[in-house]
Write a structure and sequence with these properties.
Layout (H helix, E strand, L loop, with lengths): L20 E6 L4 E9 L3 E7 L5 E7 L3 E7 L1 H9 L11 H17 L6 H19 L3 E3 L2 E3 L1 H6 L1 H18 L3 H15 L3 H26 L1 H14 L2 H27 L12 H20 L8 H13 L4 H13 L4 H10 L8
Antiparallel strand pairs: 1-2, 1-5, 2-3, 3-4, 6-7
Length: about 350
């Protein structure tokens, strides 16, 4: 097994915590954690974290404080690195390297910490997973898939990885990106169980995206009229500048629409004031919803299993004729060329039908 990646020094500033902090126990029973920036005879000004990246200053009266408890620097630092495991799916080797670096820095800076053992366990987990990733494995659904297992089932696993990405995009309501990504997914993974599993979700995304486009269309004339009335109420000089700005925006929107149409993206960008893009989206979307519905009646072809069975036959050194038939079956199932190449390179002496 290869050693984990040796990296150049990284800032990783978000994981470095060196300053001590205090917990202010107030007389009303509430608690406030922060670092003292300055004080005077009657109050403290402290820095508190509003969010992970936003800080704020607050002034609290000394008379309102019951007691101040100091939070040791190592406890603050460990609170950050303990969140580095469990790691998310599909983490890259570079991302693992950053996490490893952060834990090693904790171990260097806090050698007497009571959390030393826990930190070492986190480091061991990260290095172990990093080794697998560097060797060609991946992490999916919270499980490390070693390189050999991944290679034996590459087509199905890649489809599942893409499926996970599409589901995340849909959850984040990034409908246009979801639909364009699904178009590419469909070209490569049509004959997979992941594709079948995604059909209901994609129908929902298409329906939601079309609903937005239809809403813009239904209010288009009204909004155009409102904009026209607004322009008429403006002083002449301001109106002239605004009309020019609107003209430039419309030209840019039409140019973008034309560019996307020429590129045959299928799903074009929509804008409340670009009617051609809205009309195109509704027309294309209705066709896609109908087409997607028709796929439910198509016979299920599990390309993942076809690839897996072929690779298993190759690895078990099956009969050449059987291997050739298995690779031909993969071609018939329209697996992308790169997956056929994986099979053929694993069985270089076997000749298959083109």
């Amino acid at each position: 097994m290869q050693p984990y990646l040796i990296v150049t020094p990284l800032c990783f500033l978000s994981l470095i915590v060196s300053a001590a902090a205090e917990v202010f126990v107030m007389k009303d029973g509430s608690k406030l954690e922060g670092s003292i920036l300055r004080e005077n005879a009657t109050s403290y000004v402290i820095e508190v974290k509003v969010t992970k990246s936003i800080k704020d200053e607050r002034e609290i009266a000394k008379a309102d404080i019951e007691k101040i408890e100091r939070v040791p620097p190592d406890k603050l630092a460990f609170a950050v690195i303990e969140k580095l495991t469990p790691t998310p799916d599909l983490l890259t080797s570079d991302a693992y390297a950053k996490r490893i670096r952060a834990v090693e820095q904790f171990l260097t800076n806090h050698r007497l910490s009571a959390k030393l053992k826990d930190a070492k366990e986190i480091l061991a987990t990260l290095k172990s997973e990093a080794n697998e990733i560097l060797a060609g494995g991946i992490k999916l659904n919270g499980k490390i898939i070693p390189a050999a297992e991944y290679q034996a089932n590459a087509y199905d696993i890649d489809a599942r990885m893409q499926e996970a990405n599409l589901r995340k995009l849909a959850r984040d309501l990034k409908y246009l990106q979801t639909l364009r990504t699904f178009t590419n997914f469909e070209r490569n993974f049509r004959n997979t169980l992941s594709y079948r599993a995604l059909v209901p979700l994609m129908n929902q995304v298409m329906t939601s995206h079309l609903a937005e486009a239809n809403q813009f269309l239904s209010t288009y004339e009204t909004r155009e009229q409102e904009r026209k009335l607004g322009l008429e109420r403006m002083p002449r000089a301001e109106r002239r500048a605004t009309v020019n700005a609107i003209r430039e925006e419309n030209a840019a929107l039409e140019a973008q629409f034309t560019k996307e149409k020429d590129a045959r993206l299928g799903w074009v960008s929509i804008h409340p004031f670009c009617k051609s893009a809205l009309d195109e989206t509704v027309a294309f979307g209705q066709q896609e919803i109908a087409r997607l519905a028709a796929t439910r009646d198509e016979p299920v072809v599990d390309g993942g299993k076809i690839f897996r069975d072929a690779m298993s036959l190759i690895r078990s050194e099956g009969e050449a004729a059987e291997i050739a038939a298995a690779i031909t079956a993969a071609k018939t199932a329209t697996l992308p060329a790169r997956y056929i190449a994986i099979l053929e390179s694993a069985a270089p002496e076997v000749k298959t039908d083109p």
